[in-house]
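Holo model, MF3. Inputs:
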Amino acid sequence: MIFLKSPWEIEKMRRSNAIVAEILEALREAIKPGITTLELNELSEELCLKKKVRPAFKGYMGYPFSLCVSINEVVVHGLPSQRRLKEGDIVSLDFGVICDGYYGDAAITVPVGRVSKMAKKLISVTEEALYKAIEQARPKRHLSDISFAIQRHAEAHGFSVIRQFVGHGIGRSLHEDPQVPNFGPPGRGVRLKPGMVIAIEPMVAEGTYEVEILEDGWTAVTKDRKLAAHFEHTVAITEDGPQILSRV
Ligand code: MF3
Ligand code: CO
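Output:
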């Protein structure tokens, strides 16, 4: 069941999502060769304390950290560790909080120092796919118009779209209906309505879309170990069109 949010609830979600965006920006600034992914996780927790919000992922389905840090071939759910970032890596940061009962969720992919042309292109195509998808998040469009926009943009640039993970409704829970796939034909699924709030999160791969989960039970990597990128925004559908909530 899809829970529609009142304007008052959307204001609450704007607050949680703005904090997520602010923390992601601070993490982006902290990214440099030599920093460990655990240090990034610690920074995210310090910032939560400062903002008086709770990290959303910690303990969710037993997830042991507050931040997901996915380097290079890691698609999503990379676990913070003693591993140090190095020049040329691309790193996706996925982060969420709960504030006053409502969730915020967003992700960015960031280059570490100078990166390859391919890495740069993958990052920009994935982010563009997110914005093309957001453009479809308006009343009367079908849910899969969002999915189609992502797939079309990624594939037009020779990349593939990860199928095993999806975007989602969000509100008083981190994951609500509907699921928002990143691929598929247009014109399918529910019609979008004012009051729906969804997290749109394209994951795009340089090579195959097939993924494998590592021994730790979390880390999702591309089967061919080529690069993947991930961007996510929480978006409210309003009469006037999409409103990106995960923005400072
Ligand atoms: N942004 C991811 C999602 O929406 C974060 C979930 S990671 C988990 O599914 F650790 F919390 F599971
Ligand atoms: Co999400």
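The CA atoms of residues 18 and 248 lie 5 Å apart. The radius of gyration is 17 Å.
Archived with the compound record.
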